[in-house]
Design goal:
Length: about 220
């Protein structure tokens, strides 16, 4: 049976998860069970943290990110949950003892089955499946003077320059794009975005029984 190796970046979250005593682990699982899936990991962490204040938020976030990473790994390998858990616990870089396996195995299986963890992980993975992801946007406004041939004379006019700044992640690399816009461009962009919102609303009406997960606004 193939083993699942946890990357070093996820080790702190894994070690914190394994170190939980049983009553605290059960309280944490119950807190996750009470939450709905979301695209906002911070909101999920904050909501769970209020119910389990014994775990500080940085530690809780590390645990959540590790569990969600495992959920994505299971989905990508198309493994059933019990087999996947056995593969994780059999990883040589974790060094999980037989005594720990008896406790951590059922715990890990229960957490990976939590809807707020598993569905959130799948939704975020789908959201970032595209090659280029928008991370943020901002409009930069600038007024530039127009001079005659002799620059020492006062400006004879001004031009308003609008620049759309897009921060994107492309193939894992964060990039910034700057696009000059005039009033006509802005009007066309507004119409395009309004059309996109209308399409989204129409699609939601087609699936009224399913919740639609959306990220909060990040525009500046």
């Amino acid at each position: 049976m193939a083993t699942i190796r946890i990357p070093e970046s996820a080790r702190p979250g894994w070690e914190s998860f394994v170190a939980l005593d049983e009553p605290l682990a059960e309280s944490l699982r119950s807190a996750f069970d009470s939450q709905a899936p979301t695209l906002d990991i911070d909101a999920l962490v904050n909501a769970v943290s209020t119910r389990v204040p014994e775990i500080d938020r940085p530690t809780l976030r590390a645990v959540v990110e590790t569990l969600m990473g495992l959920c994505v790994a299971r989905t990508s390998r198309d493994m059933d949950l019990p087999t996947f858990v056995k593969s994780v616990l059999g990883s040589p870089n974790l060094g999980v003892s037989k005594e720990q396996t008896a406790i951590v195995g059922p715990r890990l299986e229960a957490f990976l089955a939590c809807d707020s963890i598993a569905t959130t992980a799948k939704a975020i993975d789908l959201q970032f499946e595209n090659r280029t992801i928008l991370l943020g946007s901002r409009i930069l406004s600038d007024v530039r003077p127009v001079f005659r041939d002799l620059i020492r004379d006062s400006p004879v006019a001004t031009v308003v320059i609008q620049t759309l700044k897009l921060t994107v992640q492309e193939d894992g690399e964060v990039k910034q794009l700057f696009i000059a816009l005039d009033s006509e461009d802005i009007s066309r962009l507004q119409k395009t975005l309004a059309r996109a919102r209308e399409k989204g609303d129409a699609l939601r009406r087609l699936i009224p029984k399913l919740p639609v997960l959306e990220a909060g606004p990040e525009d500046e």
